[in-house]
Amino acid sequence: MAKFIEPVRGMNDILPEAAGRWQRLERVTREVLEGYGYREIRLPVVEKTELFKRSIGDATDIVEKEMYTFLDRSEESLTLRPEATAGMVRAGLSNGLLYNQVQRLWCAGPMFRHERPQKGRYRQFHQIDVEAFGLAGPDIDAELILMSARLWKRLGLKDVRLQINSLGTPESRAAYREKLVAYLEGHRDKLDEDSKRRLVSNPLRVLDSKEQGMQAVIAGSPSLLDHLDAESQRHLEGLKRLLDDAGLAYTVNPRLVRGLDYYTRTVFEWITTRLGAQDAVCSGGRYDGLVEHLGGKPTPGIGFAMGMERLVALMEEEGVPAPQNGPHIYMVRVGEAAERAAFKLAERLRDALPELRIQMDCSGGGFGNQLKRADKSGAELALVLGEDEVAAGCVALKPLRGGEQEQLTWDALPARLKGLAG
Ligand code: HAM
Q1: Angle CA(325)–CA(331)–CA(336) in degrees, nearest 5?
Q2: What is the Cα Rg of the chain in Å?
Q3: What atom of ligand 1 comes closest to residue 84's alpha carbon?
Q4: Ligand 1 atom nearest residue 121's Cα
Q5: Quick one: which H or E segment has residue 32?
Q6: Where are the domains of the chain?
Q7: Which CATH number describes the domain made up of 329-417?
Q8: CATH class of 16-168+228-317
Q9: Ligand 1 centroid vs 411 CA: distance in angstroms?
């Protein structure tokens, strides 16, 4: 026998048992986002490599070592998207959606990063990505954060905490960067190899190190918040005021720096304690320079992305019930005349009650075997047709979770089954 082909490491199948939670996440997200006026956009999974290099930044982990980049048959360098923001801006520019306009957009789909796979970290994963363009004030920052908080509430998630920070403007960050580099140089002997490398390429990312031995050095480093320019300071205060007004709890974490280069001012992350090391379920921030950097007119932007695998895992951890997506009704039929009658009846019921999920037994065998499968399917009811029922022009309705069997005419069925789908 031929050996079956293994899946690609870090790329998972989402099985039918898990699909109910995914669908619930997608349905609730769509309702909440559309309720705030965000519109769906669907984008290609592949973009020109240059787009990600220019937006995410050459010195980031993503661009340095995680992208799935390949030459296509015309020798063009293309990349499977590692995130959605760059593609959103590209699509906004390609389609003339950004200049002098306000856009509230969202998209969902797979992203690809060649990271070391572990629980909550995969090479193909899914994000719901939300972006707002053309709005510069802290009010839109607050709207996005409040909208994400509402999502957790609607999904029944409790163990999520909000952290916010401001990265200031490129100028204020450059001044801070100098101070940070001087400080870290002074503690060179205590830096691990990764941090020594980052000290040259991307020193702010040293603050993001999870290395235990680095924590004391990080705790003693100068704070980004002490180096904010006045306008960024006001922006942060404005955001805090709106979050306070809404009664939303948050922590200001001056070491929250994020792993992508395009951010300016507000950055934020929703963290959980329930998923181990991969604790961020939703992250984002403002990127006021990105549209211009990618060739557009100066246009402010801010957004976030949620990791769907992590949210589904958190729903499971927190015991959010998985929606039942098995059949409501299981059709049992024995004999040729009953087979023809059962198909006719099932189609009639689907016409009359389109919301019902009706499953036909197509595996054969006697009543006993079919009823066993009916029970296993999770259905509430079996509709049973044998020679007697066909001759009498009726059908037996058998409750599978307790209750008395009934005989009904076909005409009486729709009224009896109404409401079964909840
Ligand atoms: P990010 O922090 O790289 O930001 O990813 C956002 C979220 O995607 C993370 O909080 C996490 O939940 C999930 N995620 C990231 N990598 C993986 C992985 N390997 N496996 C599973 N889940 C993962 C961005 O992607 C930005 N584009 C967010 C943004 C939108 N900023 C502004 N607008």
Answers
A1: 150
A2: 28
A3: 27
A4: 20
A5: helix 16-35
A6: 16-168+228-317, 329-417
A7: 3.40.50.800
A8: alpha beta
A9: 54
Indicate if the alpha-carbon torsion angle 203, 296, 103, 101 is positive or negative.
Answer: positive
Alpha carbons 228 and 168: distance in angstroms, whole number = 5
pLDDT at 201: 87
Residue nearest to atom 15 of ligand 1 (CA): 307
Residue among 145, 227, 130 at smallest CA distance from 178: 227
Find out whether the beta carbon of 195 lies less than 6 Å from any atom of ligand 1.
Answer: no
CB of 280 closer than 6 A to ligand 1? yes
Nearest-atom number in ligand 1 for the CA of 287 is: 32
Token code pair at residue 329: 């009704």
**Closest Cα partner for 83 from 272, 287, 338?**
287
Spatial CA neighbour of 343 closest among 354, 359, 327: 359
- What's the CA-to-centroid distance between 257 and ligand 1, angstroms? 13
- Per residue in 288-317, pLDDT (tens digit) is 999 999 999 999 999 999 999 999 999 999
CA of 66 to the centre of ligand 1 (A): 13
- Per-residue tokens: 254: 């001056």
C-beta of 113 in contact with ligand 1 (< 6 A): yes
**N-to-C CA span, the chain:** 47
How many CB atoms within 10 Å of residue 287? 27
Residue to substitute in 127, 257, 312 for testing ligand 1 pocket (most ligand atoms within 8 angstroms of CB): 127
Distance CA(395)–CA(384), nearest Å, equals: 6
Q: Is the CB of 138 under 6 A from ligand 1?
A: no
Token pair listed for 394: 């009726």
Q: Say if CB 413 and CB 393 are below 8 A apart.
A: no
**242-293, pLDDT tens digit by residue?**
999 999 999 999 999 988 889 999 999 999 999 999 999 999 999 999 999 9
Its pTM stands at 0.95
3-state secondary structure 253-314: CCCCCCCCCCCEEEEEEEECCCCCCCCEEEEEEECCCHHHHCCCCCCCEEEEEEEHHHHHHH
Q: Ligand 1: which residue has its CA nearest to atom 16? A: 121
What is the distance in A from the centroid of ligand 1 to the CA of 244? 26
